[in-house]
Amino acid sequence: MPARVETYRADVVIPCYQEQDALPLTAPDILSYFRKLQVSPKNSMSSFRLLLIDDGSKDKTWDIIEKISRNNHEVIGIKLSRNYGHQMAMLSGLSHSSADIIITMDADLQDDIQAVEQMLAAYESGSHLALGVREDRTSDSPAKRWTANTFYRVLSLLGVNIIENHADFRLMSRRSLDALLDHSEVNLFLRGLIPAIGFPVTLIPYTRKVRVAGETKYTIKKMLHLALDGVTSFSVAPLRVIAALGGIIFTLSILSGLYVIVERVFFPQNTIPGWASTVFPLLLLSGMQIFSVGVVGEYVGKIYMEVKKRPRFIVEEITPPNIDGNTRH
Ligand code: UDP
Ligand code: MG
């Protein structure tokens, strides 16, 4: 991993939904922290911008963003037409960025902003991704911890590679962001995609704090939505389960179909007229149907993966380096 020596520009992307209580408290802290970083000799960050994304808030969030932007030349506000959800709001900020590094964080400063310094150090020593990992979740409610743990367990069971306790507090290099934006699928599940990009990664542990103001914007409905997105955008395992279930039921129905025939032929005194001719086709057909749905599901799964048009691979390096100029951005 070669260390980086050049100076770089940073964009900080912050999705904001109904954050009228938190933003006036957190934005000044974020600004002053990055202003300090900018002049600090400990890193080579030359300038920064704050991209505040209003994710269709119905409260005064946008007015606050406009005001902050008027008073601070580093701040750019982007207002989305409606509430698209945290992930899409973040993506809109990422798509608007032209910086060399991009940092994403929440508006409520639950993530320890001091960890950004370590993220910059990781970037300067060659990492393309520096991912904040919550070390301690005691500030979250027991219900939130339980749902989060279950979420990670289900995802790993389904074979989705996700970094545990990493939410959306991270630094990305231009290169890794470009690779991410090459994924043209509409339903981007960033937490799953980002580890899948590859490139050198550093995990930065930090302690998660309590929200400074306002309530959590992740309602149960939004959390379920996120979990479902995580499962369905990376795994066709649920379809496989149907196929397997269909296979099992089909086998059972053949066995019980045989039993019906044996009963009918050898022990006719046990059966009533019409029983075999009704039950046998019923068992066979229902088994076949579920199995067929499973087979169709397999193809649907393949189509689903195809239509995403994900890049099939991402090149990290070519040697000699400027063979076609593609490895530099
Ligand atoms: N958020 C968003 N759109 C939404 C929900 C949340 O942009 O539909 C933002 C929110 O303003 C915050 C971040 O996503 O900056 C994380 O949300 P929150 O802090 O409420 O979630 P929690 O930390 O409780 O999981
Ligand atoms: Mg929060």
TrEMBL record:
The UniProt record lists the keyword Transferase: yes
Residues that span the membrane, as ranges: 241-262, 274-300
Localization per Swiss-Prot or TrEMBL: Membrane
Lineage: Bacteria, Pseudomonadati, Pseudomonadota, Alphaproteobacteria, Acetobacterales
One Gene Ontology MF term: transferase activity
Record protein name field: Glycosyl transferase
Superkingdom of origin: Bacteria
Native species: Asaia siamensis
Record's keyword annotation contains Transmembrane helix: yes
